[in-house]
Every structure is written in structure tokens, then in C-alpha cells.
Design goal:
Elements (H helix, E strand, L loop, with lengths): L12 H13 L5 H6 L3 H15 L7 H15 L2 H8 L4
Length: about 90
């Protein structure tokens, strides 16, 4: 059971619109973003960071970025991040 319950998507309309980004990369908005809706400014900044990292403006593809994220989260031992990097869509 989480210490802070995630809010339902749509608790903050602007965050909900921005979180649609995760539907294309993961297929769903992660619970971390749903929880961050309690502080919408943090959620907006987090989503902007993810969009900037995953933008395909260079030679590294989204698939390669996700693989790097999976390896890094495995090395760090973060099961939450492993789950979100292993199951993502492209």
C-alpha cells in the first residue's frame, strides 16, 4: 500500500492532458504521475522532463533510450522503474 494514494487521472485537467504523452510511451500514465497531481506544478515539470528526454531529435531512438533506462534502473535496483521501462510501447 502506498504512503500517498495516487489521484484518479483528471484530478488536474492540465496534468491529465499532459499525461496523455505516457499513453504513447507506456500505454498508461504511471502512478507516480497520478500521485504528483497533488502538486500539479511538480507533475507538469516531471512530464516536461520526460518529453524532453524521449524526444527523437537525435540519432538515438526511443527504443534505445528505453533500453538504457532499463539497464540503469536494473543497476540501481529500482523495480518500479524497471517495470515502466520494460513494458513501454514505441
Amino acid at each position: 500500500m502506498p504512503l500517498v494514494e495516487p489521484l484518479p487521472l483528471g484530478a488536474d485537467a492540465e496534468v491529465a492532458d499532459l499525461a496523455a504523452f505516457f499513453n504513447t510511451t507506456l500505454g498508461f500514465p504511471p502512478n507516480s504521475v497520478l500521485t504528483m497531481q497533488r502538486r500539479p506544478e511538480i507533475a507538469r515539470a516531471f512530464i516536461a522532463l520526460n518529453k524532453a528526454v524521449m524526444a527523437n531529435q537525435g540519432r538515438i531512438t526511443s527504443e534505445q533510450k528505453r533500453l538504457v533506462a532499463l539497464i540503469a534502473s536494473h543497476a540501481a535496483g529500482c523495480r518500479y522503474c524497471q517495470a515502466h521501462t520494460a513494458c513501454g510501447q514505441s
